[in-house]
Amino acid sequence: MNYKYETENKDYRDFASGRVLLNAKKTTAFPIRMASEIMQHCIISLDKKKNLTLYDPCCGGAHLLTTMGFLHGKVITSIYGSDFDRDVIEVATANLSLLTEEGLTKRENQLSSLYDTYRKDSHREALESVERLRSLSAQVTSPHASSFSWDITNNPPPLDEQIDIVITDIPYGNTVGWETTSSDPVQDLLSHLEIVMNNDDSIIAIVSEKKETIHHERFEKVKSLKHGKRKVTFLKPIQ
């Protein structure tokens, strides 16, 4: 991938899974630089550049959503995450709470207790990350953020508002697989997303294996990007 927006390879250690953000079992953390690049491709494609709603229907522990809230909270008003796996939603909720001062302080107190007990450098460094994240969140409007258990391949999600941007890293590979009875989960996912997308102007970015073809009769492919074994397909609803 040729980075158009995230041209600098910055230090993203504050967002490392398990440092301040919690790690959800059976999930993988998404590369921050790549996620931010995808997000900016999505934003630039829309006529509306602020007050955006963001949704990830395969959110896992909401690592991607939480980092986007910190990095692009200036233009996001609502963040929603859902996942078929009920066990990871508790982690997703905790991670998304870090976008609030209350949630960040709770995590800070947990890390402080660990540092006082074990005096590990990793806990001290995590506390330093909390301060940098607090400084970052002070520069943005904390979006409304929520997560819930849902099988996107079975039904449209019960959302309170239309979605402007969907970014999702769909299951693939040996670590994470689809947990559904659907015979064609990607087609069902897109069919149910269409119902909740902003009819005027919205975009979906699906991260998949490079070999997978992402298409749907109700969506137009606007571009694709390749990065290692991954491919990002950008789709817009056909008006």
Task: Please name the defining characteristics of this protein.
239 residues, 7-stranded mixed beta sheet, 6 helices, 7 strands
What would you say this structure looks like, in words?
The chain is of the alpha/beta class and 239 residues long. It has a single domain (13-99, 143-237), classed as 3-Layer(aba) Sandwich (Rossmann fold), CATH 3.40.50.150. The protein has 6 helices and 7 strands, in the order αβαβαααββαβββ. The protein has helices at 32-45, 63-72, 86-97, 101-118, 121-137, 185-196; strands spanning 52-56, 76-83, 144-149, 165-169, 203-209, 219-227, 230-237. A 7-stranded mixed sheet has the order 3-2-1-4-5-7-6, with helices on one face. Helix 6 (185-196) links the parallel strand 4 (165-169) and strand 5. Helix 1 packs across helix 2 (63-72), helix 3 (86-97) packs across helix 4 and helix 4 (101-118) runs antiparallel to helix 5. The protein starts with 31 loop residues before the first helix and ends with a strand.
